[in-house]
Design brief:
mainly alpha; 80% helix
């Protein structure tokens, strides 16, 4: 266990606290905890790289913690009516399809290593910005309705583009295209 792994585990623990704060209408607390979770994500990566504390456990835990956080907050904001249901379905389905593809390819003895694509990184960044804006608006920190509306459509477009890019990558892998002999 390394310090970055402990920080990542702390991010896992923050997720139920964020959701509980949202359920209780404590949006400022939810916003602050979400920001703290984001800072912890950057911090664990920085420590892992700078102090050579990368680990196999961390390479699995970190992206799972990130997805747990994003998917949980997306679902909760959808349930609260603060994000459109269709957007929540797009975001969650994209992640489920990626996990399903990885599992299926492993079950078929053709494991695929899904590396983050540029469009996927952009999608994640825009999703995070959207969640920050919605939580900040709900916490009363700013009036962001116009920006939030624009960001909803940006997230939708990037989510579709990212899912499509991963699907093409996975199909090419399963078909044996561009694979070493």
């Amino acid at each position: 266990m390394t310090l970055p792994n402990f920080i990542t585990i702390a991010r896992f623990i923050m997720v139920p606290l964020i959701i509980l704060a949202m359920i209780n209408g404590e949006m400022l607390a939810a916003f602050l905890l979400f920001m703290l979770a984001g800072i912890s994500d950057g911090l664990d990566g920085l420590i892992a790289r700078h102090f050579n504390q990368r680990s196999e456990l961390g390479s699995w835990l970190d992206p799972v913690a990130d997805k747990f956080l994003l998917v949980s907050v997306f679902i909760m904001l959808g349930w609260l009516g603060e994000l459109p249901s269709w957007l929540v379905i797009f975001a969650v389905s994209r992640d489920a399809l990626i996990v399903g593809a990885v599992v299926l390819s492993s079950l078929l003895d053709n494991p695929v290593e899904m590396r983050p694509l540029l469009v996927s990184k952009a999608n994640t960044m825009v999703q995070i910005v959207l969640l920050i804006l919605v939580l900040a608006d709900l916490a009363g920190l700013a009036e962001l309705d116009g920006i939030v509306t624009w960001m909803i459509y940006a997230v939708a477009g990037l989510t579709i583009a990212s899912a499509s890019a991963y699907l093409v990558t996975w199909l090419r892998h399963m078909a044996g295209v561009n694979q070493p002999d």
